[in-house]
Known about the structure:
Helix content: 10-25%
Strand content: 35-45%
Number of strands: 18
CATH superfamily of the largest domain: 2,3-Dihydroxybiphenyl 1,2-Dioxygenase, domain 1
CATH topology of the largest domain: 2,3-Dihydroxybiphenyl 1,2-Dioxygenase, domain 1
Number of helices: 4
Amino acid sequence: MTTFSQAKPAGRPTWIDLSTSDMDGARAFYHALFGWDYDIGGPEFAGYTTARVGQRMAAGIGGNVGSEGAVFPVAWGLYFASHDIEADVARAVELGATVLFPAMTVGDFGRMAGCVDPGGAVFGFWQAGQHIGAEVIDEPGSAAWFELYAADAKQSRDFYSALLGAAVEAMPGDLEYYVLRHGDEQFGGIMQIDPAWGGMPPNWAIYFAVADADKAVDVAVSHGGQVLSAAEDTPFGRLATLMDPYGAVFKIIQLPS
């Protein structure tokens, strides 16, 4: 388990949140699966919900309908830490990204912006105010890994390396896979989409740590979720791909002891 008490360095994954069509249903599902407790925001924040593992912030849950009626995809999203959000958005655009929504202030909590990378995957920036981002990772119920499924892995490798100031190393093996790191710390991966996967769109996948992958799969299914990829052992832990009852896809991983 790793915990945080201050904002993360620029370029690190710092926050994840769910855009969902049913906030009450999503809260119930993830409470059953991860044991999350919640702080639910007021009307001025459209009920945006902070999920906690114990007393530590782990993730957010929000609705997928914007203030002007725009409907957004049901999906998990990833935000990278920023210390100058306007400059980071401008840098992303210089590198080929497009702006999904410009930098905006969220009360005293911080500032956020959304972008689409050159390959079509959505990501965000978060500049911390009172909200420092996730306060825990690698603990059951919290994020454990972040993985981009890319239409052009080399293009994405170069984009995120330049944007985040990250070093990149290629993983050995048949799959085209790159690991992003700052110093000795690995913080994300980029995998080439295989056409045999059936037209998967580019996206950042969130891995959540669980104590028991098989039990987590059973809980997810019993509460309306679906198994997209059955639990299997890998060198990195036992993992599975799931979809919540409202269509958001995510992964679970039982980390090696």
